Amino acid sequence: MRVVVAGATGLIGSRTVARLRDHGVEAVPVSRRYGVNVTTGEGLEEALRGAEVVVDVTDAPARTEEAGLRFFRTATANLLAAAAAAGVEHHVVLSVVGAQRLRSGYFLAKELQEYQVRKSPIPYSIVRAPLSFESLQAIAVADTSPDGVHAAPALVRPVATEDVAAELAHVAMGLPRFGALEMAGPEEYRLDDLMAKLLAANGDARSVVTDAHARLFAAPLGKGSLLPEPGAHTCHTTFSMWLAQR
């Protein structure tokens, strides 16, 4: 089986390539580093030649609605067109939990990406991942509010990126789902409480300000807007396990 992984030099993409190769799959990494540009289409045709499956873990250069819409509208269309021309039998795309509910910010851009995949004639699977420990840590580090890190009291079931990569590899090796699979971490936290735990684990002395109006990727959050749907696939890596593995 020949599987092309677009966005292969990112954190999740590189681990997805590794998981596929662990299973004996011919995993072909695709990114600008390998001479392929999904936004211009440069190198796509050659990279997808002979591929049976495409796994799309590409991401916008910024987690804003404008940047996301601009990127996914073009990059996803290019990938799907090249996949159709190459006779790809299964298109797997990584999305986010909340894409179908949060109608603003980066989540709206991911919903657009899902729509493009669903409308394509290529058999597909959508994997919706919740926030990862790694992404939450990056959000906390990037927060420059003078009075502390602002976070909403929304509920989350975070996962490790290693679990996301393993699930993507598993889905890629299976039959197309013609729908979405949602993932969930084994533990549920309030976002503000988890941010405080992450800061403490990193030796960051900043406090966390519980702010019901705090947004995530420019989207307002309700209490359950970041929770997966019932029946989501539960991963195994807990917060304490993730800390120990870092």
UniProtKB/TrEMBL annotation:
Residues 7-130 form the NAD(P)-binding domain. Signal peptide: none annotated. Pfam families: NAD_binding_10 (PF13460). It comes from the Bacteria. SUPFAM superfamilies: NAD(P)-binding Rossmann-fold domains. Keywords: NADP. This is SDR family oxidoreductase. It comes from Streptomyces chiangmaiensis. The lineage of its organism: Bacteria, Bacillati, Actinomycetota, Actinomycetes, Kitasatosporales.
